[in-house]
Design brief:
The protein is of the alpha/beta class and about 230 residues long. It has helices spanning about 15-25, 40-45, 65-70, 85-90, 105-125, 170-180, 220-230; strands at about 5-10, 30-35, 50-55, 75-80, 95-100, 130-135, 140-145, 145-155, 155-160, 165-170, 185-190, 190-195, 200, 205-210, 210-215. Strand 9 (about 155-160) and strand 10 form a beta hairpin.
């Protein structure tokens, strides 16, 4: 699963720092922005694909609950507040959790786990076990487990499966969004590999039974971490 892109909406600097420190300790969280009011938060939601908001309720200009009601397509939300009396209203708005300040790192992790688990369940329900590609004028069914790797070739893609090779029009970023994170990983700016097909990781390459693919330095740490958890 890719790191969750996070947004902190919190007016108080000490509370911001606590959240920033907690987020930095979890590899599957990626903090994009810290803002102090709902107006800033709304702008970030329009400009970025935010997955998770850490939201204080007592904000200037517009309080947190009013902000939630104003957002038409809201990502997952974890409330962080010093006041317990708004919990019922918050959960009526489908927040993932309600953290009362001061909260421990352990309690923070439990809240984040709720969001991560919900996202995994949604992926399982929505991701198909197969994909169809158009090659030579025909639509061909590809089982996800049969895909070894996908590589970019200009405006085209090379798709290597356990049975065949295909050369089709498309972009790697589009395919990265179509392939389930739990089985596939970016190993290079031009390659995505099926984790289940990796047999060896070298210094500059990833090896499968169907050949080697390059491994970029910026992707090395995430690859090692993922294969260590298989």
């Amino acid at each position: 699963m890719n790191a969750l892109k996070c947004l902190i909406v919190e007016e108080q600097k000490p509370a911001q720092r606590v959240l920033q420190q907690y987020i930095a300790r979890l590899d599957h969280l990626n903090l994009l922005h810290v803002c102090t009011n709902a107006v800033e938060a709304t702008a970030h939601l329009h400009n970025d694909a935010i997955d998770l908001i850490f939201l204080d309720l007592h904000l200037p200009q517009m309080d947190g609950l009013a902000f939630l009601r104003s957002v038409s397509h809201c990502p997952s939300v974890i409330i962080t507040t010093a006041y317990s009396e708004h919990a019922v209203d918050a959960f009526d708005l489908n927040v993932a959790d309600y953290l009362l300040k001061p909260f421990s790192f352990e309690r923070f992790c439990r809240a984040v786990s709720r969001v991560s688990n919900a996202n995994r369940e949604m992926e399982t329900k929505t991701r198909p076990p197969c994909l169809f590609i158009k090659a030579d004028g025909d639509f061909i069914r590809l089982e996800l487990d049969d895909i070894v790797f996908v590589s970019s070739d200009g405006n085209f893609l090379n798709i290597i499966t356990t049975q065949a090779r295909y050369h089709i029009a498309g972009t790697l970023s589009d395919w990265e969004s179509r392939l389930p994170d739990r089985h596939f990983i970016r190993t290079h700016r031009s390659h995505i590999v099926n984790l289940n097909k990796i047999i060896r990781v070298g210094r500059q390459h990833v090896e499968t039974d169907y050949g080697r693919t390059p491994m970029g330095r910026t992707f090395c740490d995430s690859i090692i971490k993922r294969i260590s958890n298989l």
